[in-house]
Write a structure and sequence with these properties.
Shape: elongated
Radius of gyration: 26 Å
Number of strands: 18
Strand order of the largest sheet: 5-4-1-6-10-7-11
CATH architecture of the largest domain: Alpha-Beta Complex
CATH class of the largest domain: Alpha Beta
Largest sheet: 7 strands, mixed
Order of helices and strands: EEEHEEHEHEEEEHHEHEEEEHHHEHEHE
CATH topology of the largest domain: Spore Coat Polysaccharide Biosynthesis Protein SpsA, Chain A
Strand content: 25-35%
Number of domains: 2
Number of helices: 11
Helix content: 25-40%
CATH superfamily of the largest domain: Spore Coat Polysaccharide Biosynthesis Protein SpsA, Chain A
Length: 401
């Protein structure tokens, strides 16, 4: 980037997000006490050299401009258009009064809230001296199929040459304005800014991004975005805590079977539990406690019951993977306290084995693992012997060794 080249940003947010399946636009879905759109804007505002962000809203949108974060002095609103190209073009036409042709424009999706500080900086640094610009993207990892109009497979596409485009997409103001105007005049359909750049004969570069930079498309994406946002928060080291505490709870209904998995031990019983994995409520509660201590979401985010890979999964393996996340972030378990809640089966004969199993999985000493059981005095579903529950509390501490 030339010394005089400034950085501007555009967020096209005039879409309705019909695939989201809700009675409101996906950019106004809530994550961690803010909307998706606010998170997306906040990611750009972390770039201190940014001049202004122009957000293109739908003509009937009465919500966007009222959001707390979007009252920021660097944010301006314009009326968007029917298509993404129209909205971005309207924003650029507004900026034309202020931006030079060699300035940079970052175009970022309204529904892409998990952009990291490091990826944004990498994009800017990599394209600093490029005459045109480029995009963040990640290489395709799944096998790709080309299909016909009847959903029949025609061929397999070589995934080694295919990348998934992300945003921000960063281009020189003059090239981007010219390209979008030409695309609009020729009535060409484009789905991102790089498409317009390509259609006009320019070459955009690819900068490796992160798979965490997801775009919210369906409601299920919100839980994953929440996890990534909390992970980014942790990476930035915004806490000076020495200790952190988390709590977890899990429950399973009884079903067919002859045993129940508790703390990695098969306890004989007249019934089993109904579960996607092995149904170990004690370990699942402990996993949630560990994840909660570092605000990393819950077990459902990391090992969803919609994923066939976790069908009948060994919960001890899931616990080991959760604890690896804790270890990677420089923390270790100080102590854990698990309470199993059920009329039956009786836990006492197996309690020591349970403690030993958990200590072995976590590679910690036996004296920091507590396992106990209680009943509900025949109250509730546990008292009616319809199911089993467990609660866990985990204290973690900074690992300075």
């Amino acid at each position: 980037m030339k010394d005089k080249a400034r950085i501007w940003a555009v967020i096209p947010a005039a879409g309705t997000g019909s695939r989201f399946g809700a009675d409101y636009s996906k950019q106004y879905a809530g994550i961690n006490n803010a909307t998706v759109l606010e998170h997306s804007a906040a990611a750009l505002l972390q770039q201190k050299s940014l001049q202004k962000i122009v957000i293109a809203l739908h003509a009937d949108d009465t919500q966007g401009a009222q959001l707390p974060l979007l009252q920021h002095e660097k944010i301006i609103f314009v009326c968007g258009g029917a298509e993404r190209t129209d909205s971005v073009l309207q924003a650029l036409l507004y900026l034309r009064e202020y931006a030079e042709k060699d300035d940079w424009v970052l175009v970022h999706d309204a529904a892409r809230p998990c952009l990291s500080v490091s990826d944004l900086q990498k994009l800017i640094d990599t394209l600093r001296d490029d005459p045109v610009g480029g995009i963040l993207a990640v290489p395709a990892t799944d096998t790709l199929k080309k299909i016909d109009e009847n959903d029949g497979i025609i061929s397999t596409i070589d995934r080694s040459v295919v990348w998934q485009a992300q945003t921000p997409q960063m281009f020189r103001f003059g090239f981007l304005l010219e390209s979008l105007q030409q695309v609009q005049q020729k009535k060409l359909m484009t789905t991102d800014e790089a498409s317009a750049i390509e259609a006009c004969g320019y070459t955009a570069k690819v900068v490796l991004g992160s798979r965490s930079n997801i775009k919210i498309t369906y409601p299920d994406d919100l839980a994953l975005a929440e996890f990534y946002l909390r992970e980014e928060h942790a990476k930035q080291g915004e806490t000076n805590m020495t200790f952190r505490i988390g709590q977890g709870y899990d429950v399973h209904r009884f079903g067919e079977g002859d045993h129940i998995m508790l703390c990695g031990i098969a306890v004989p019983h007249t019934q089993g539990v109904i579960a996607h994995s092995d149904g170990d409520v004690a370990i699942h509660a402990l996993c949630d406690a560990l994840l909660g201590a570092l605000a990393l979401g819950d077990i459902g985010v990391h090992f969803p019951d919609t994923d066939a890979a976790y069908k009948n999964a060994d919960s001890c393996e899931l616990l080991a993977r959760v604890y690896q996340l804790i270890d990677q972030r420089g923390w270790k378990l100080a102590n854990a306290d698990i309470t199993i809640i059920a009329e039956l089966p009786k836990v006492l004969p197996y309690r020591e084995k349970m403690q030993q199993r958990l200590a072995s999985v976590l590679k910690v000493s036996l004296d920091i693992i507590s396992v106990k059981a209680t009943t509900t005095e025949k109250l509730g579903f546990e008292g009616r012997k319809e199911g089993i529950a467990a609660q866990a509390v985990a204290l973690i501490e900074k690992n300075n060794g």
